[in-house]
Protein 1
Amino acid sequence: MIKVVLLFIYLFIITPAQTNGNTITLPVEKKYRHNQVKIQKRAATHNIQLYNNEGFEYLVNIGIGTPAQNFTVSLDTGSSDLWVPSISCSEQECPYNRFDPSKSSTFSILNDTPPFYIAYGIGSVNGTFAKDNVELGDATISQQMFGMASSTQDLIFMSSSPSNGILGLGYPALTTGSVKYDPFLFRLQKEGHIEKPVFSISMGSVHNQGWAGEILLGGTNPEKYLGDIAYEPVWGNNTYWMVGGKSIQIIKETTQSEVIFNHTFASFVRCFIIDTGTSLTYMDHALADDIVRVMAGNVVLDQVSGTYIIDCGVKGDATTDYFLEFVMQKTKISVPIKDLILPLPGEEGRQGSLCMFGIAPWMTTGTSQTMSEKGWILIGDSVLRSTYLVFDMKDDQIGFAKVNTYDLFKSP
Ligand SMILES: *[C@@H]1O[C@H](CO)[C@@H](O)[C@H](O)[C@H]1NC(C)=O
Ligand SMILES: *[C@@H]1O[C@H](CO)[C@@H](O)[C@H](O)[C@H]1NC(C)=O
Ligand SMILES: *[C@@H]1O[C@H](CO)[C@@H](O)[C@H](O)[C@H]1NC(C)=O
Ligand SMILES: *[C@@H]1O[C@H](CO)[C@@H](O)[C@H](O)[C@H]1NC(C)=O
């Protein structure tokens, strides 16, 4: 078996929409259809399991076509298109399931089959758009626009549980068609298939491998969080799922808690992009350096991977806990430092062995550079695992709550 030594994923869509100030269509008011007889239209909640692939990506199973052809795809709040490999992609490039339109009775090809091309933080894909029925758990949308990939780069890896396509959960404004369209989840909401206009994500601990997480369509799951859900408004005209950040802190907790690092953003609020499709958390180089040095001493960046490689045994003992906190307007995400120390795939993660730090500087490729210059911070799985997430598609806000760790350690 081929083992990828540094497998990490970086899926936020790179789009010119960020720079040209285009107008954005807001989701229209939804009509519930409680009284209608058509069973499949009844508003409900749909609970779908999430697969934790070594902590580096989170996958769901979706079906496309009639009968459904199955794909295990990455769950990505940092982009908005759904695509899967099609039979026009070579087996070398697309070694897993490939969508065959001739085997679906509900498939429809679009007029002049508009091509699509998507560039992510790492990797790109191209192919053509089409429409067919899409199902996620027991939620189904007919004639959903999706991409059939004919070529992909750096997105499908040889792995025992490969990701074979991407399900973008972002706003319609980030879709890449020549005409913006409603992604699967936004259609579920607009067409009244879900009880509340939200979807909620609980990833589970990094150590709970396999089908340990959950995405709930249409509601929140009280078993997965503690206390109240605090909501932050979405920033930036409904493009990325992003919120306004105020500061980043490190807290040392013994018998009392002490702020040992406090980086308050100067004149303006920084955007925190909430991106389940990216493994690590990215910010400007100086800030990332400061944080890793507080936690692990004088670490240098590994130039090949663009990450900090540190001793797995660094910081934290029985009597002291450290937390990295992302402070927003009303609430904060608090991550135990030990959860930011990620064993390299195949490593034990013990003291003396090598781990990757969950915070990294923005990559220096062109488009990441743009994000970096804006001062934005991309919050990925390394941090998001520590919070329950609620994405509200109607009131344009993101809810955060403390994860229920008791539930995480319950045997499945
Ligand atoms: C696709 O997945 C569904 C639901 O998990 C399952 O019932 C069906 O048998 C699968 N189909 C194939 C062809 O694997
Ligand atoms: C799409 O993929 C094909 C095959 O690899 C390639 O020749 C073409 O340049 C790609 N198109 C874009 C826009 O990247
Ligand atoms: C949102 O749109 C307004 C009006 O077009 C623009 O002035 C503002 O800069 C946009 N905000 C962001 C974060 O793009
Ligand atoms: C962090 O620094 C800012 C600005 O210097 C200050 O206003 C704030 O009170 C500090 N927060 C803590 C918890 O020390």
Protein 2
Amino acid sequence: MDIAPPGLCKVFYSDNGSTAVEIAVKMAFQYQQHQGHTGKTKFISFTNAYHGDTVGAMSVGGIDIYHDVYSPLLFPTIKAPAPYCYRCPMETSDSSSCGKLCLKELERLMADHAHELAALVIEPECRAPVDDHPAGRFCPGGTRAVQQI
Ligand SMILES: Cc1ncc(COP(=O)(O)O)c(C=O)c1O
């Protein structure tokens, strides 16, 4: 608990990354149901995201080459553009002056879908199977901005 961010005070163990994501998705969904927010059933996830190979983890993933073939099995999510500056999803060539367009789009999506959102799924790190361009890597200050949204 010493290294957990403020406000996070419980731990639920899982034995691998994919099932950790399954558990997180189910917990978020169940939380909303128990709060009486029965319409909050949807998730925002990112393009280019990788969360593992179980069905729920693939549903909140966004890498076509891995996930497309399974699309009839997956539940739909609202896709936010990942800040993958090498190939800017917002079609801006200068990432240093992009004005955090990905964050703005995320903010818009969250505002538009607030009434039906169970959670935002975001990975702070991603090592495999893709190279290192995680959806969680917004520009400096971006993680805090996502938390504030
Ligand atoms: C961000 C992220 N989430 C989930 C997983 C899936 O973890 P596991 O292979 O332990 O199921 C990975 C694996 O690379 C990952 O990078």
